[in-house]
Each structure stands twice: as structure tokens, then as C-alpha cells.
TrEMBL record:
Protein known as: Tr-type G domain-containing protein
GO cellular component, one term: cytoplasm
InterPro entries hit by this protein: EFTu-like_2, GTP-eEF1A_C, P-loop_NTPase, T_Tr_GTP-bd_dom, TRAFAC_GTPase_members, Transl_B-barrel_sf, Transl_elong_EF1A/Init_IF2_C, Znf_RanBP2
Sequence similarity: Belongs to the TRAFAC class translation factor GTPase superfamily. Classic translation factor GTPase family. EF-Tu/EF-1A subfamily.
Domain RanBP2-type residue range list: 42-71
Compartments where found: Cytoplasm
Location of region: Disordered: 203-264
Native source species: Gossypium darwinii (Darwin's cotton)
Amino acid sequence: MPRKVNCGIDYDDGYDDDFDDYDYGYDVEENVKEPSLQDTIKRGVWRCSVCTYDNDDTMSSCDICGILRSPSVSNGTYDEKRTVHGICKVSGVSIMAKSLFASRPHQMSKKEVDSQQQNDDFVVKENNNFHMLGNNQGQFHEFHKAYSSPTHSRINIAPFKFDVPSPDDLVSNGLHSSAQHSKGKDKHGGIIFSKNLEINPSSGFKASDKSSASMAKGRVEDSDGRSVSNNLCSSGQSSSSLMPKERTDMVEDGSSLTHGGEGYLTSNLKNMTLGAKSGNSKDIKANSRAQYKPEKWMFPEKAEGSLTQLNLAIVGHVDSGKSTLSGRLLHLLGRISQKEMHKYEKESKLQGKGSFAYAWALDESAEERERGVTMTVAVTYLDSKRYHVVVLDSPGHKDFVPNMITGATPADAAILVIDASIGSFEAGMDGTKGQTREHAQLIRSFGVDQIIVAVNKMDAVEYSKDRFDLIKSQLGTFLRSCDFKDSSVTWIPLSAVENQNLVVAPSDVRLSWYHGPYLLDAIDSFQPSSRDFSKPLLMPICDVIKSSQGQVSACGKLEAGAVRSGSKVLVMPFADIATVRSLERDSQTCSIARAGDNVAINLHGIDGNHVIAGGVLCHPDFPVAFARHLELKVLVLDGATPILMGSQLEFYAHHAKEAARVARISSLLDSKTGKVTKKAPRCIVAKQSAVIELVLQESICIEMFSKCKALGRVFLRTLGRTVAVGVVTRIVEELV
Ligand code: GTP
Ligand code: MG
């Protein structure tokens, strides 16, 4: 049974009652009332401009919706008082978001801080939320000065080649390259822990549960109070050996890549290619991929006979029935017992939410149940004939898109759930308020290219074929524009509530016009994703679980390589070496985990505070990059506000989230040829592609897309919406 880690703490304590009157139609931007600076200081809180929740002053992102606070106000410390046995006491909803978005210890130079204090555009007011700063034209000269300190003085923009077809291009054009791997399906973990955070082999967990809340503070200093950068240089290992001096394997033999999965983004970006060779290459000191020799145990043996793991994101507009569908599937497949189901039915009826009985299996927090809305990605498991499916039930509400991004990025495939009811499908397709389009674009940008469109609530439209056809035609056009191929999209009319077309063919005669596969059948028709078994270990940390005995487990999906009990791993960004004590996959202890597996890796020989969500486990000889100045190739999404130099954005990559500022717009790219059409444009507008440079508030673990797709995909948001998607093309300045 899926379970949201609850830690036995009442997360409703101190909860702002105002927020209880949740209104789907609530227009956040219009209703934001900014508290005065005086109020904020007096009350020790800051108000989220999206959900208006009053967060404690020590929080760097909103406890409810995960939106970042103003970059300047973090105190940069880990507040021990707010934790119980390392578990954050604040609301579980945001904890998860925070655990996913945990940031590194503050490491701004004094100069940078000074600059920020002087630069109103960057800081504005202490209590302003970061995204409120919007697309302001910043005083870049001021900002740039901050980076003119010795550590940032070597910023050097290298030219790119834009004329070489990428592996993704080859695939999109139907030309299969032997070197081509899958779309680098992203990551996310499903791990099973009990309420008291001890490893428990019987329950599921919410993708961003409270257990890692302590990490969510992000501002973790090591025991000596040193910053990360110090720590990196003075940890047990020599930093020079751990932090790559040379990203040789980024170069990938000089091949060029495009972003392969950005929805309609792809139609604009797929012809944009670029040389991955960085002008900033340093002396080769770290191991190159050529030197990496995988061992035999790292490859799966066919005889193992286990089901292939499939990470399946359930996405779609709010209230389309994602959780109900997931809960119903779990029940039909025996993952939820009859007894448990009775309990959900009884309890939901008592709360006047009888129609949410199945959704309660996934929406486990009091907040979610009260409001009847999913807030964080729930992770659970089911088995089909062919796959061991990791179900990632995402929130549909627009306020929780950040949680959807960080929780569902590991998806290999997706079910896009559509509410067929009259008016509801149309609401989901609304360009500004609907999430159907945004989720479809995001999913495509995660690298997912095969989806099922589950046209749900067909009972509400009398299983009308006309309604189904209309939805198929309108949404189909949009999905094509997102670069989903018709052959990779399966359309299924169904009803989760009436159990039609889920695990067997429909029994209702009103669906007799439908002759396609039922849902479970369609899931089995997904193509398995290829996995990078032969590359060095890379596992972005989605979540961190600490037991009361002081044990620490890093949870996530292995993007590359393999690991087994006794393996030594490098835990970034702290560059600590730890030993794998044990592994758990879907509640079962296992001895080996390989690329594609969602696992909890129990580590020993490491300070638990040095394992943080947003960090990465890697092979000790092949550390992931740790950087804050990045070059990206982006596509600005339809309807987004222009991006200017100095614009402040929320930056998302794998399970990391950070405040960012556009430091340079290098060039505009032709969407068809990928060639530079204009150098140094003043801004980029909707549907334009460009090469830009971003400077993050703090360094994060990141890789170039050419090296690891999962770690090189980025999403930029502001004012509560996704404005651009893209890929990391160069790490301009890496922390060494
Ligand atoms: P969020 O996670 O908040 O985005 O919502 P959701 O997509 O998970 O929707 P949820 O499962 O919470 O269901 C929302 C409402 O739709 C509930 O009242 C369900 O009973 C109802 N619902 C779900 N599936 C069906 C269906 O097949 N038919 C009908 N008539 N109602 C349904
Ligand atoms: Mg839901």
C-alpha cells in the first residue's frame, strides 16, 4: 500500500487556516497581498506570493507549494531546532518539496553579498518572493561585478558548432544510430519507509516526504560550520581528485547534441545542434569515460527473470482523476486490500469526501485529503504482465507544478489523464489556467516520448464517442506540436470510478464502439527504456531518509551504472565517500541496483547531514559537476513573458531547484536549422530558441546534457508558470 511518510507529527499544527478555503479557481496573482517588511521582520515570517502561506523566516522556499523565496534572505544555516531526530517538523507537503529542492550551504563571496545588497533588482525587498522579481531588467554591471572575484574571473564564452546532427536528431528522423541511447529517461525514486522513518518493507512513500525535511533546509553546514566549498576542498578526499578538473567525457568525442525531448520544443530545437566542446576545458586530470571499465555484475543477466522496471508518471489537469485512477488500479491489482479500501471509503465519507475514496490511497496527508487535491508526487508500485511499474501520481494543480517537475522527472512513460466532462477538458486546455498543456510539454521535456492519453470520466458524458473523438482531435493536434508521434500515443476512453477499460475490456455497452486495448494492456505495450549500465554510477538524490538509529538512506533512480552492497560511492556535493550498507527496491532488500532502478541506498561512513536531496551519488572516480554558472540552450514556451538579461527565474534540474539570474543572452537560434540568427539579442520571446547563460544563487550538482541527459535537462519558471525548457550545453565555471 502506498504511504506518505508521516513521521507521526501533526503537520497541521500551525497551519494557516486561511489556506483551508482552497479554491481551484483562485487567482493567486490577483490576490497576493505582500506583507510589509516591518510585518515580516516582526512576525519572523515571509508570505508566499503564490499560495499566501506564511512561512517561517528560516525557510528558503514555500512550505506549501515549494516556490522559492527571495534569494537574499536565506540565513544559510541549518536550524536544528526545527527538527526532531533529523525530521523537519513543518508541514509535510512542503517538506517534500523542500527535501527535493534542498540547496547547498550558502557560499556567496562577500563581494557577491555586497552586490546583492546594493542591487535592488536582485534583492528587491527582503520579504519578496523570488519569482515576484519576475523579468526585471537587472543592473547587470552590478551583478557581474560580484562574479569578478578571482573565483569567477575565468568566465569565458566559447563558440559552438551548430551544424552537426545530434543522436536525438537521428532518432527523430528515424535514422537509428548505434550509439543512440534512449531519451535519457529521467529519474525519481520509489522507496518504502514506515512512519517512524525506519526502513519498512511494506509501505510506499510520497516522493518528497518529510523524512528528508531536515535536508530541505538546504543550508547545511558541516560539523565545523564550514561552507560546502571549504568542505569540498578539505574533506577526506583531495578535492582535486574528486572535483573534475576536466569534463572530458562531456565532450563525447566532439559529437553534438540537441535537446531531444521538449515537446513542441523539439520541433523548434531539434535542428539546433551544438558542439559540446567547451572552450573552458581544463587540464585532463579526472578519469575520462574511456578509462571506465564496468564490471560484469553491473549488467543484468537475462536469466534473472524479474520484471523490467517502468517509471510511469500520471499527469494531467487538476481533478482529472489521476489519483482515483491510480488508486483504482492498485485496488484492482490487489495492491490495496479490500479491508484498506473499506477504511478509505468510510473515512472519506465521514469527511464528506466520499468520491475521493480511491484517491485517498495516494493522497495521504491531512492537507491533501481535506482539500481533495494532490500536492506532492505519490510513489507506489504495481505489476503488469511485463513491467514492475513505479507509479508517480503527480499533483495537477498549478500551484504544485514545481512538485510535479521534481517528482515526475524520472518518468520513462506517462499517462496523461483527461477529464472528459463538458467544460473540464476545455478548462484543462486553457492556455493560461489549464495544466493539460503544461504537463504535456513538461513530460515531453523530461524525455518521455510514449504516452497513454486516458480520457477519464467517460461515464459523465455517457461514454460518448463524439466527445472522445473531439478530445482526441483537439488534444492530438497539440501533442503533435509537442513532438509526440501519433504512433507513440495511445488513446483510451475509460472511467476510473465505474471501472471501465482499466484492467479488462469494458463491460458497459455504451463503450462497444471502442476496440482498442484496455489501460493495463496499453501499459504493457510501452517500449522498455534503454539504460546506461556501462557508464559510471550516477544517482540524483530524490529523497533522504534518516532512521532514529542514525542510519541514512539516499533514495532515487539510478540514471547510470550500478551499485551493490559494499560499493564505495561518492556523495556530492559534499564529496564524501560512503559505503553502501544495503539496498532496498520496492520494499525488498536487494544486493544490486542498476540503471533504471528506484532504490533506497543505505549508507554508512558518512555524516547524515552530507546526504541531501538534490545531491548526487556517483562513482568515486567520476564525480558529477558542481557549478553555478551554466550555459543553456532553451526554448521559451508559448505564452511566456519575454526573458531579458537580468531576469530572475526559478531553475529546476533533476531534484534540485535554485534561484537563477540570466547573466547573458548569447544568441538567438533558428528553430529549423539551429543556426545563430542573431548575436546578443536584448531578449527572447515566446517560441524562440536561444543560447543563454544563467548564474545560480548557489551551486548545484549538474551535468551537460551530452554527458547525462537526466542531469542536463532544465526547466525555468517564473510567476508560477514554466516559461522555458532546455538543456545544459556547457558548464561555464565549475567549483573546484
Ligand atoms: P489532483 O491530484 O488534485 O490534480 O486531482 P486528481 O487528478 O488526482 O483527481 P482525483 O483523483 O482527486 O479526483 C477528483 C474528482 O474526480 C473526485 O471527486 C473523483 O471522484 C472524481 N473522478 C475521478 N475519476 C472519475 C470518473 O471516472 N468518473 C467520475 N464521474 N468522476 C471521477
Ligand atoms: Mg491527485
